[in-house]
Structure formats: C-alpha cells, structure tokens
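Schema walk-through. Below, the input block comes first and the output block second. Nothing else is stored per chain. Lengths vary across the set, and this one has 357 residues.
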Amino acid sequence: MDGIQSGSGLEKGSNGWTESEAAVLASAATGIVDFLNSNGGDVDLVFGRTGIAPELAGTPTLKLRLAAFCSLFEEAARQTGNDNFGLWFGNQFAPRDLGLWGYASISSPTLGSALENLVGLFDWHQESSHMGARRCSDGLIQLEYQIHLPEIVERRQDAELSLGMFLNVIRECCGPNWAPEEVYFEHAKPADWHDHETAFQAPVYFSQPTNALVFRDEVLNLPMPGRDLTLMTMMRSCLEQLGSTSDKPVTLIDQVRTFVRNYLPSGYPTLKKVSDGLQISPAAIQRELASEGLAYKELVETTRRDLTFMYLKQRQLPFSEISLLLGYSELSAFSRAVRRWTGQSPRDLRNRLSLDS
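--- output ---
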C-alpha cells in the first residue's frame, strides 16, 4: 500500500456493538437470490428462516443485521447441500456489486490506494468487525478480516465469501489469474477443502488466528483499470454520509472472548496468557467479568460449548480434531465436557444436531 508501514495504522477495529445492533450494508448480498436458484435452493425458505426479505438483498444503502446476514449464508449452505456456498458466492462476486464501498475501491488510482480505501472505509460498510492490512516480517502483505462479535459463532460462509470478494478487488487490477501466496481461515478444515485451493489458486490453511489473504507488495503500485478520482471521491462521500462509525468502545469482555476463541487451538488460554495478549492486568479482567456475574473459567467454558455445537455440525471433523481445536489435551476430556453440558456423548449430540438441521 502507498507508504505502508510495519504495524500500519490501516487497521479498523470493532465498534463494540451488540449482536442485535451490528449491521452490514445489504450490497454484500447482491445476487444471492440468483445464486440460490442456480444451486437449487428454496429462496423463500432460506430467507424466511433468517428473517430477511429477499427483495432487500443487494439494496445499496440498506443495512442488514450482521447476525442475520451470516445466518443467511449458513442457512443457504445447509439448504442447498453446497457446503462451500459462501466460497463460490464470493468467487463470482464482482467488486462493483459491493455498491458504494466497492466503487470507492475500484475507482482508486492504484491497487494500493484501492486497498487503503477498502480498509479505511470498512467501518461504514460493516460494524463490529475488523479489516486491516499489515506488512509481515518477511515483507509480505497480509489483508485481514474478522468479525469481532463472539455471539456470532457460525461465520464460516461469511469469511469465505468475504475473502473471495477481496480477492476479486485485486484481480480487478491484476487479472483473473492472479493468486495470493497463501490464504488463511479461522475455521476448521471443511470436507471439500480442495475447492478452496482451486478458488484462490493458492495454498489454504485453516484453524488460523484470523482470515487473511497474503501476497507480495509488488502489485500495490499497479494502476487500477477503472481509476476515476471524481467517482472515488463521490463514492467516499456518499458512503460516509450513510452514517459515521460509533464512538462506543469495544467491551473488555468481548476482547477476552475473541482472544480465547483465537487461542484455543494452541491449548487452554490461561488468564495470564489473555492478560499478556491484551496487555491488561488479570485483576482488571476479573473485575470486568465479575461486574457481569462471570468468572474467567465460565467464559472459557461457554466459548468452548458454543464452538462445540458448531464443529459437531461439520460431520467431516473427527472428534479428535474438534478436541484439539477446543484446546483439550485429550479426547476423553472433550467427551466429559460434552456430557457435562448436554448429558450426551459427542456422537449422540452430533446425530441429534444433524436431525435438527
């Protein structure tokens, strides 16, 4: 990016909204009705289950609840039987279909400035989420994306469609065959993971701390084919007029939940580990949790339980891998935890969840 620094200030943090408040511009769902139809989906059923009217999808200035948006694509994947629904939806998504946000990017003078606009204007497009670009120690650029609402547990489809959209912004400049060096996803490896390497034409790694495209900086100075400074300025202005970012700070409890979720695959995240990672004293974390009637161990337990329900729905994941993703050193410890929460074995719970979905 033009003038990008290591640890650059191009990062946009969570706005601290609750699940019911956080929103995303409906333009991110442009074309989902046609895509559902092409996948043999029942449009009324999928939209009905998520509480969104089909005619609202793709409206440039309308905002949808972020939780409902994520549920829309998770439900579409389940109802169509296409486990990679979000991956392929993002893969075919044209940047201009992102509406004001997309046009502000593709009308930028260079790819570097296009990505700066993508990152810099992200908070106007989607709330309670993070998008950032940083230079890694090896000189590669990492374009990151992650929802910061721990309540939205099922968000795999959103992550895959989002990175596909960002990929196509870069391909708008570099051509349809451009590929990143690597791709990262925070969720576990799905059954048809080879599709991901086909879609991105790059090695794809799962169970990572964040979702990201990793690429060389040599492309940043390339001119955008649709560069138009007048249009770019107009789109920026229109987007900013839709509403400003919230001044409400990120809650400490949400920061702790996010850290715990990201660290679990590396083992149990002790309070000291969280304290060091957030650079906040253990006492301050415990006080904040106590003010909400929570203990640290309860927060970790709740996070593990919520993730367990999500992982068990992914039938290709063996119990041993789920156990590791949740930070358990032994499968028996995971099995005991599931019985404590539900009174069922992991196998019985998986079968029940399959019948319910």
